[in-house]
Amino acid sequence: MAPMVLGPFPFEFLISALVTILVVVDPVGLVPAFLAVSHGLPEKSRRHVALRACLIATAILAGSALIGDWLLRALSISLPAFRIAGGLLLFSIASEMVFGLRVTRQTEAAEQAIEERVRNIAAFPLAIPLMAGPGAITASVLLSGRSGGDPIKLGLLLAVIAAIMLLCFGVFLIATRLGKLLGSTASMVLSRLLGVLLAALAVQFVIDGVRVAIAG
């Protein structure tokens, strides 16, 4: 029996997945929303909310990566069409980040959730839609489709999702200190830079979708 020969390690896919998921989820940008949601909670409860939110978001994004492509086929939606639509959606999110609208909207959603006395703030608005929102779900499905069914690439995507959620958990644990350390100016500049990067990635998704659609 001939030994199985593995191809080269997909570093480009790993970097693409890492940058895309990191920018879309934006752990540092979630700090104001987390502080607003968890305001007044004791430290133990705050840690519980952070852990629960990260677990829920991980399950949602991992599920999107695993069954998203199958769901598209079941709905007769081609991957190029989803790439184009997903790229436009990601570009919309990027424009909000560049013009400073996303953090404001996240904080307002968090404050509204408190006012309405939502029972489980870990699930809403933290996990959904702030962490595992339409942009992150779209990115997970697009990256899953880009893996071409390669188990190594799919495993890397799941590992990236888990790593980003672990980073979110760490950021939430130090949210109070991080908010004071960064200040409003540094947070604004970082959000703008990440928004420009995400806009470029979104345009690339659209270009890939159009190219495949024309070739097909």
Describe this structure in words.
With 216 residues, the protein is mainly α. The protein has one domain. Helices cover 81% and strands 0% of the residues. The chain is built from nine helices and no strands. α1 packs parallel to α8. The radius of gyration is 18 Å and the shape is globular. The termini are far apart. The N terminus is likely disordered.
Features:
216 residues, 9 helices, mainly alpha, disordered N terminus
Count of helical regions:
9
Oligomer: single chain
On the 0 to 100 scale, the average pLDDT is 80
What is the beta-strand fraction?
under 5%
Structural class computed from helices and strand pairing? mainly alpha
Helix content range = over 70%
What characteristic shape results from the CA principal axes? globular
Q: Give a quick account of the main beta sheet: strands, pairing sense, barrel closure.
A: none
Taking the alpha carbons of the first and last residues, their distance comes to 38 Å
Write down the domain tally. 1
* Count of individual beta strands: 0
Cα-atom Rg, whole angstroms? 18 Å
Along the chain, the helix and strand elements come as HHHHHHHHH
Poorly predicted runs: 1-5, 115-119
Please outline what is shown here:
By secondary structure, this protein is mainly alpha-helical.
Strands, helices and their partners?
Elements: H1 11-25, H2 31-37, H3 43-74, H4 79-98, H5 102-115, H6 122-131, H7 134-146, H8 151-173, H9 175-215
